[in-house]
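Re: the request from the purification team.
They wanted to know what the chain is likely to look like in 3D before they choose a buffer screen. I agreed to run a prediction and write the result into the notebook, where they can find it.
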Amino acid sequence: MEIHRQENEDFLPVRVIQRDTDVTHLHLARRGLTYVPDLLRFSMLRCVWLNNNKIREVSRTSFNCCLTELYLQNNDIHSISGALRHLTCLRVLLLFNNQMRCLEETVSELKYMQDLHTLSLYLNPFTQDPEYCQYVLHHLPSVRFLDRKEVKEEERRRAFKLFSVERQRVFDSIAFGRRALPPPAGRNAPSSITKPVGQHGSRKRCTDSRSEDRENPSVAKSIIQFSIMNWSGTSTSQWNHLDDSSEPASDILTVKLR
């Protein structure tokens, strides 16, 4: 039985890597590495496993730009600034359980990865920030799986409201075909205006903007304009063979509402 099994193993195909371009997957996990070796010579490299080592720094010269999957979890990495932004084809990146402390710096490094759909950053110090998830989702819209969880549409809406306050205000103000104008420069919103009253300096809250508009006639008012065209008088194919003088004129009615 042992001889028969040995004969079968001798006939198994063995892939021999003769050139650097033959390397597409590289497993370097659990090797006790303290730095990332130079892997640029592997021009066809797509997936690299460097997890469960003792790596503290990542260099820009470590990876080629065609990399699609990178596993750097369970290391001692403090920063990835300037090291990964050229990996624009990256789709999977695992960086959990490291020592990265600056969330803005990390997200800024990843924003060039338009195809990044799986990202894990948990167990890093910056994940203690209560707005961590919303910040990542807002600045990295391509991510579909964050920290092993699928991103829900409701989470994206919350992130948008939290970090796009001005754009959300514009969206909320659009209704019935018009946009509510913001207060003029140098003037606070009516709901937050307070004025001193009387000799004792008591203050009251001003909620009626019409009285202030009467006091300041220079305040710009919004105007809605409608244009209506009388299509019954528009030239059609039936008029083509007639004389130009017989062609009816089109009427345009313009109404302005203040």
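For the purification team: The radius of gyration is 33 Å.
Please add any questions underneath this entry.
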